[in-house]
Amino acid sequence: MYSQTITHLHRTAFIIALDCSTSMQGMTYLNNKQMRKADAVAIVCNYIIDELLARATRGGEVRNYYDIAVIGYNGHDVLPMIPENVNEFISISTLATRAPMPREYRFDQRLDNGLSTTANFVLRDWIKPVTEDFTPMHTALTHIQGMVSRWCSKIENLDSFPPIVFNITDGECNDATSDELIKAARSITQTGTNDGNTLLINIHLSSNPNSQSDIFPSDADYHAESEYQMTLYRMSSLMPRTMEPLIEEIGTHRGKGPYRGMAYNITPSELLAILNIGSESIKLA
Question: Does 213 score more than 80 pLDDT?
Fold first, then answer.
């Protein structure tokens, strides 16, 4: 299980679901630069999409290794974050034909000797940050369930590595109870392919750069500090053994695997490491 090699005949799918509510206007830090949480998340997601595109490129040709969807949720709606995506999957090769112009970013980086330097890097702005209204997470999860169910039921995907869903938020849901959220999440993780069930990873961004993060907690004897934290924990997938070596490279784990696909009170830099697990842990042909 969770061992299928990715080829153009057995591709996999990624969904990134973004909280686009007003609270994402709150400030955070990325590489020592202060910015809105929505802007930091957009930069991280754009980096991941660029990475997926690079990994799917062989000899100058983009191979259909991935289907990708990036959706946002706010107010009462789910909205497409990639232009012309219409809240559904887009193949990585099709996405490559719509690539926006690269943009240069500058960040201050601290060297080992304590000095600072300016680092420049280039990203494509695949998605733009949105911040308004409240947080309809249940609506988003229901929409995602339909997406992964349809994807997994296609004949060409029956033996593929199952979809991975990243749900990124900074606050509590406004359109459902905890029990309703857990039920909606389980309807997602009950879908899957012959290689395993769909993986749902729930990620909570911190508003405090000094807060203690909780990343991929051990499934044994877990104790949450709040009801909401426990809700996210119960919503999240049990991570496959094949991903444990990469998981154990992030942060300090109090216990041993298996681990839950949850990260709580994290920074944007930790978000990047978590999203990378999804792409790096899958074998490419």
Answer: yes
